Transmembrane protein 214
Amino acid sequence: MRAGRGFGGPLRLRRRRRRLGAMAAAVLGRWEVVGKPGRRGGAAGGGGRGGGGPSGRKALGAPSAVPESLLELRLDKAAVTSGRRRQQSKDEVPPPMPGQPASRKAPAGGGKSGKKAPPGGDQAPKQGRFRSLEDALKALDLSELQKELDKSLSMFPENPSVWVKDLAGYLNYKLQAPKSDPTLSQHPHDYPYCLVNKELRSTIKSLLSKSAGVLELFFDHCIYTMLQELDKTPGDSLHGYRICIQAMLMDRPKVATMNLSKYLELLSSHQSRPAKCLTIMWALGQPGFTDLTEGLKVWLGIMFPVLGIKSLSPYAIAYLDRLLLMHPNLTKGFGMIGPKDFFPLMDFAFMPNNSLSPSLQEQLRQLYPRLKVLAFGAKPETTLHTYFPSFLSRALPSCPLDMQKELLNCLAEGLRLDPLSFNVWRQLYIKHLPQSSLLLNHFVQTWDSTSKKVRKSLQETVHSFKVTNEELTMKGPNSEQDVAACRAACKNLLLKMKASGLPWARLLLVALVFTAGFLMHDIRTHGSFEASASAQVLRSSGILSASQQAWSRVSHFSGEGYSWLEANMPLYYSRVATVLGPNLELVWAKTNETAAYISGKCSAQLTWLSDNLPRFIEWLQTPKSAPSCLHAPMAGVLHHLPGVGENQAFALCLGYEIYSESSVDFMLFIQLIVVRNGSFPRNVCIIYIIYTIGPT
């Protein structure tokens, strides 16, 4: 059913309402079925549409069975009326007389003149009705559109699928402008939606928000109808459906990526029709301009499989270029490209004589660095070892030079960032001898720019390879040439390691120590520096006089600097005191307040200390009476100062132990600590043991 037919001619109002109501009731009675059941009646053209519909929804490539919306019902009626009108005109109007110009056919409907022929007739083709899409949008009557949508909502209040299909059909019928290429390559990425004014955008978005549950089916309908129009000659322009697709996917990009495998099958079924394939790819590619993740899903699932097809490859690469250009921040795309996708892309970019033309291959190669960033992800130091086996297996000596260079750079980067790559390399070494020799020679050539961390790990790896090479040589002549190449590469790399391993800092330190020792020995031998051989050599060479001049200058400038400081330091000090004095006074006042506050809070502890300090001093001065005075001070310390009681009380008691040469009070102190803490003090025990077994 062509979505661009006109809305009926002049019929009687009663007949029109009766027929329209009957056909709408027929559709409403069957609306629960998701599929498209055939008509029961045999209206005009109905013989070719009949047939019972299946219970499930038909595939995208299946033909439409019955009208699914109010717009299509009206288009059916318009087609029937137009056919009858043409037949009546043929019967009533006589043929023109010879020699006379043929008169216009009288329009049906009571002889009214001045009316345009119906849009479905042969006299009014719609293609190119407006010169441009801008003119068509300016001529669009939004009040009429809203009126038609209100009718659709009133007749089908519980079927939002009808509403959105009426919207798309009406817009496509009204927005007839010259056709563009299927991918709109000469326009911005959001064309034609960028031309829509705010009022129409608001109407479209409002209806789409009310129909959120059927948007996936509506997307299918738009693609299917666009493919149908491409089969027709001349066919309608598809601006209305494109506007609806862009408006829908701008806010809900995941609608297009829910079932990409279905669209890939549809793309394969139309592979012989490039215009249809490009139309499908254009529709599915719209989410990428809003969401990088969804765009990469579409490219990897739809466009990457057709990369290599001559008619589709240019758009696939152009879409990827525009996608990465619009999203310079690639963090949202991390994790989308894995090894299974990355290495075929690498082959397309670097391997010659593939299905891409040289210009497309060069364009893909320019995009390759950003694809590599997406593949390696946010933490390449944890993922590169998973890429290492595939990189190593491809790095054959016979591969193209550009490919070989890129593979070696990727392998070196993996070894530099991911330490697990060295373990993977050791495991794969025996099965990949030619590739390993190539990688070892690469490190020989780039040794000066290799980091110290990589050098250390590489040294251990090369030593293990050296042992493996000896074992392979002893086993037999198998792969003798590859083993010899690896042995030579390991030898060259070990020589590089030894040549660049000079400890310059140690050598400088040794030279400095040797020079100082020689100078001291020379001075001691000759009695003074002036009489030493070193001084004579320095005088003859002029170094001594130069050093004396340098020392005099240093002394002179040092004296001037000291004089300047002596003259200006008081001035600067007074200025600093003037500027910072109030602040320092404020800090001092705050410090005093803090000290007073702390002393007020700790008054109880200070009172206890003042009460017990005289007894403690008395205890120190009278050692004979110390055993009777031990309980109160130690118990007080342990009770009032739990955080430091053990160490300080132990120090006091140990001092008493040394002074009184008695261990009775020390054991009593240990008992007090055990009662206080519930555990045996380890430090007390250790020190006491050392004290008891030590020399007196």
